[in-house]
Amino acid sequence: xxxxxxxDHNERTWIPPPNGFLKRNLDAAILKEINTFGGGLxxxxxxxxxxxxxxxxxxxxxSPSSEAECANPMDPAAGIQ
Length: 81
Fold this sequence. Notes:
It contains one helix and three strands. The protein has one helix spanning about 65-70, and strands at about 25-30, 35-45, 50-60.
């Protein structure tokens, strides 16, 4: 019996950074219905080892899409250093 395999062509694989570098992966979501957006990031080393992560939720803003475009989760003021 053969094992089923994935036919999802949108499947993604994490690609490590070059030796001596870190990799930052970001994601964000906008919930216009409740005037909120959030974002998060994960930093990993060259072998995939966890270094640091952070997430934030912003509520009660006047324009979630423009705030999301301006937010920089790597800004030292955001707590990642």
